[in-house]
Write a structure and sequence with these properties.
This protein has helices spanning 15-24, 51-60, 64-73, 81-86, 188-196, and strands at residues 5-9, 28-32, 43-46, 76-79, 87-90, 105-110, 121-125, 138-142, 147-151, 156-160, 166-171, 174-177. The protein is of the alpha/beta class. β1, α1 and β2 form a beta-alpha-beta unit. It has a single domain, classed as Class I glutamine amidotransferase (GATase) domain (Rossmann fold, 3-Layer(aba) Sandwich), CATH 3.40.50.880. 23% of the residues lie in helices and 29% in strands. Bound molecules: glutamine. The site of glutamine has 12 residues, from α4.
Length: 197
């Protein structure tokens, strides 16, 4: 059986940590910086970092349309800045600014909605999609994270904070998380993404 090959968009941000987590799960993982590197991938992760920077670099490297075509066909997971990049709507925060978005998923997000860098936090989450009956909470790390303001159409919220704030969603083969599963020792979110692949 062919092993899965997963790309991690490596323009900026926390891509190494995703690569390491994927390798620890026995999957082939490669850094993606150019359109042709998407060709033989089974799935793609767009990491956290700074979404404006990721968007501008993606545009400069001619990746915007190739990434949209890839996402039409194959599973894509955006963590934090990656979630913003995949969203169709980002709030007024960036209105009028030059921030390229892939604009694939029917979600509305609000950037930096938990506050500044110093307001970053870690909390335990119940994640309903871990279908193997695993009830252990998932340790979620939020770093200047976006909030998921609304999931529309076929997009469904799959994790919320105790106060009801949505922090992860899925729409078909697209997954988004406000937080950073690659920065924990817990591979369950990566395994879940691989199950979509
Ligand atoms: N604050 C960043 C942004 O708006 C996202 C932070 C992150 O990816 N950890 O793009």
């Amino acid at each position: 059986m062919k092993t899965m090959k997963i790309g991690v968009l490596a323009l900026q941000g926390a891509f190494i940590e995703h690569i390491n987590m994927l390798k620890s799960l026995g999957v082939e993982a490669v850094e993606v910086r150019l359109p042709e590197q998407l060709a033989d991938l089974d799935g793609l992760i767009i990491p956290g970092g700074e979404s404006t920077t990721i968007g501008k670099l993606a545009r400069r490297f001619g990746l915007m349309e190739p990434l949209r075509d890839f996402a039409d066909a194959k599973p894509v997971w955006g963590t934090c800045a990656g979630m913003i990049f995949l969203a169709k709507e980002i709030g007024d925060d960036t209105a009028g600014r030059d921030q390229p978005l892939l604009g694939m998923m029917d979600i509305e997000v609000a950037r930096n909605a938990f506050g500044r860098q110093v307001d970053s936090f870690e909390t335990d989450l119940d994640v309903s999609v871990f279908s193997n009956g695993d009830k252990r909470p998932f340790p979620a790390v939020f770093i200047r994270a976006p909030k998921l303001v609304a999931a529309k159409g076929t997009a469904k919220v799959i994790a919320t904070l105790p106060d009801g704030t949505a922090v992860a969603a899925q729409q078909g083969h697209w997954l988004v998380t406000s937080f950073h599963p690659e920065l924990t020792g817990d591979g369950r979110f990566h395994e879940y993404f691989l199950s979509l692949v």
